[in-house]
Write a structure and sequence with these properties.
Largest sheet of chain B: none
Number of strands of chain A: 0
Helix content of chain B: 55-70%
Oligomer: heterodimer
Strand content of chain B: under 5%
CATH class of chain B: Mainly Alpha
Distance between the termini of chain B: 29 Å
Number of strands of chain B: 0
Radius of gyration of chain A: 24 Å
Radius of gyration of chain B: 22 Å
Shape of chain A: globular
Distance between the termini of chain A: 11 Å
Largest interface: A-B, 64 and 51 residues
Largest sheet of chain A: none
Mean pLDDT of chain B: 80
Strand content of chain A: under 5%
Low-confidence stretches of chain B: 1-13
CATH superfamily of chain B: MetI-like
Structural class of chain B: mainly alpha
CATH topology of chain B: MetI-like fold
Helix content of chain A: over 70%
Chain lengths: 318, 299
């Protein structure tokens, strides 16, 4: 057990170092702006005096490392600074948008994980059958489709032709829960189609891998039913890779929402970052990328730790 | 991102390529092609058509790339086979030029990614020690940040011009090539003939290019196809967000975005560029699948 905790501790430490480097990259990146923030805001026509005054106001005249630590300290207290485009507090802009994005990603996860696991287990059970090959071709195709293609196909079928769902996912903080789910169903379905293939293939591979081991052959020779072998013998040992791939896909969902949010005009963090990149609103882009990157790093870290913790071999070291 | 994880069931050990005579290479390749499964043949045909259209777009396209030839959103018909777009430009012509721009840029980006990542990976494996440690840790950190977010951040800083776009994506994507190249090279650098080359006092460039590279080529070629698909989809996504290729360049991602309103009127024209992206990706995937099957000896 002690070995297990040391391993997990090591992973946590690496995760923290990565997060720290991410903040460094995001902060220092802005220093490479041609000119600086003051020039960016005031434009070409600003006089040197007004530039100097504005730099002083923004605190740009101080050395980089003090500004970095101030920025980092602010981030820890939830203070991301002020947007250049509309002078609003960034944490205020981000608050509801981040929860919207999380909601969409979670909804997609709730739909995609059960589907992927079922399809994957079935494909492993009936491998090399017609069903397996069909699923294989289908997954290969969905991997090949750009997300906005899937999104517009869904809009074309379900919103325009059938009229079942709205084509724009417009929610506000007062939207009731079930209506919110109804509105978010098409975006969530798009995300589901984008990640299901990968999760399914990994589940299939993990189970086939376990099925090749001698103890499964033994169970088989004893004349056990196939469903029992899969569920009671193979699955427990396949959990680690499966959990791993599920969490990695959650991390992917968090980032994958960007394009889907733009297609459905969903008021989430992805929409905000794309808008801000177009406006070159640096502080907002910094804040959004930090949140996205931190969520991504943390989820990947969780995947690593879970796969260490669920590995039966780690629990009983020789 | 998603493809960095290895599928546990699939072997990543590639057998070294069978020795063959250069002279017979093309005849052998043709023979292999005839035996290829239907999906791979389909993939080859698709790729061939795209390359043809991309190369000869100015000759076969009925109108110019950004030439305004009619009124906005004209329907499919006599004058304009696929109608016109939001500014009254011919859709078909723009689709053809799009093959040139979108596919061309994705291809160039992938080549750069392979030059950076491939050479880096082989050098890291050959030299080992500190060089390997430093390079691998840098790659680890670059890969820990989601690629799309990283690209958005860099695009804000450096602006959205084509050279910037190509270099950003090439560098971000080279991390994955680096990992693969390093992993497969590690199996090769322990071979006796590499040791002999080193003892002969050959320079590092010789060892990497003449001794290691030829033996890790098959997995790298397959990876090239997969990386190309990924880069292609990635650039299309960025263009769709309005941050990739800038107008008036014809580009499939931004074409979808510009004409998306048509979909709400039940017109599928905006889906054509997206379908063009999907078709090429599927074609390349089929070919890579077949190639991996052939070279890895998985039966």
């Amino acid at each position: 057990m002690a070995k297990l905790f040391i391993l997990i501790g090591k992973r946590l430490l690496i995760g923290l170092v990565v997060l720290w480097v991410v903040t460094l990259i995001i902060f220092i990146g802005v220093e490479f702006l041609p000119g600086d923030l003051a020039e960016e805001i005031l434009g070409q026509s600003a006089t040197p005096e007004s530039l100097a005054a504005f730099r002083k106001e923004l605190g740009l005249d101080r050395p980089m490392h003090t500004r970095y630590f101030e920025w980092l300290g602010g981030v820890f207290q939830g203070d991301f600074g002020v947007s250049l485009a509309n002078q609003r507090d960034i944490s205020e802009l981000i608050g509801t948008r981040f929860s919207n994005t999380l909601f969409l990603a979670l909804l997609a996860a709730f739909i995609s994980v059960p589907i992927a696991l079922t399809l994957g287990i079935l494909a492993a059970l009936y491998r090399n059958s017609l069903y397996d090959r069909m699923v294989n071709i289908l997954t290969l195709s969905t991997i090949s489709f750009p997300e906005f293609f899937i999104a517009y196909i869904l809009i074309y079928i379900f919103a325009v032709n059938l009229g079942w769902f709205p084509s724009l996912a417009n929610v506000n903080p007062n939207t009731p829960f079930w209506e919110r789910i109804y509105i978010c169903l098409l975006p969530a379905l798009t995300l589901t189609l984008a990640v299901v293939a990968h999760m399914m293939r990994m589940t299939r591979a993990a189970i086939i891998n376990v099925l090749a081991s001698p103890y499964i052959e033994m169970a088989n020779l004893k004349g056990m039913k196939l469903s029992r072998i899969i569920l009671h013998h193979a699955l427990p040992n396949a959990w680690a890779p499966i959990i791993n791939v599920v969490v990695i896909n959650l991390a992917y969902l968090i980032v994958g929402v960007v394009i889907v949010e733009v297609v459905f005009v969903y008021p989430g963090l992805g929409q905000l970052i794309v808008d801000s990149v177009q406006k070159r609103d640096m502080p907002v882009v910094q804040a959004c990328s930090l949140i996205f990157a931190a969520t991504y790093v943390l989820l990947n870290l969780t995947a690593d730790i879970l796969s260490i913790a669920t590995n039966p071999r780690m629990m009983h070291p020789k | 991102m998603i493809e960095q994880t290895k599928i546990p069931g699939e072997s990543t050990d590639f057998a070294p390529p069978p020795p063959r005579l250069e002279k017979n290479f093309f005849r052998d390749a043709l023979k292999e092609l005839k035996k290829a499964p239907l999906s791979a043949k389909f993939g080859f045909v698709v790729i061939a058509i795209y390359v043809f259209v991309a190369l000869f777009a100015p000759i076969i396209a009925p109108f110019g790339e950004s030439e305004i030839v009619g009124s906005e959103y004209e329907p499919w018909g006599e004058g304009f086979i696929l109608g016109t777009d939001n500014l009254g430009r011919d859709m078909l012509s723009r689709l053809m030029y799009g093959a040139r721009n979108t596919v061309g840029i994705a291809f160039v980006t992938t080549v750069f990614a392979f030059l950076i990542g491939g050479i880096g990976g082989i050098i890291a494996a050959t030299l080992g020690g500190w060089t390997d440690q430093i390079m691998s840790r840098i790659v680890d950190i670059l890969m820990a940040i989601p690629q799309l977010i990283f690209a958005l951040l860099l695009l804000t800083i450096f602006g959205t011009s084509i050279p910037v776009l190509i270099s950003i994506i090439a560098v971000l994507d080279s991390t994955r090539v680096f990992r693969l190249a390093r992993a497969v090279s590690l199996n090769v650098v322990v071979m006796d003939y590499v040791e002999v080359a080193r003892l002969r006092g050959e320079r590092i460039a010789w060892v990497t290019l003449k001794e290691v590279l030829p033996n890790i080529l098959p997995p790298l070629v397959a990876e090239f196809g997969l990386r190309f698909c990924f880069v292609f989809l990635f650039i299309a996504g960025l263009s769709f967000l309005g941050l990739g290729l800038q107008p008036p360049t014809a580009d499939w991602g931004s074409m979808v975005r510009d004409n998306a309103t048509l979909i709400t009127f039940g017109d599928i024209t905006p889906l054509l560029p997206a379908a063009a992206i999907a078709l090429l990706t599927i074609g390349v995937n089929f070919v890579v699948d077949w190639f991996l099957h052939k070279t890895s000896g998985l039966k």
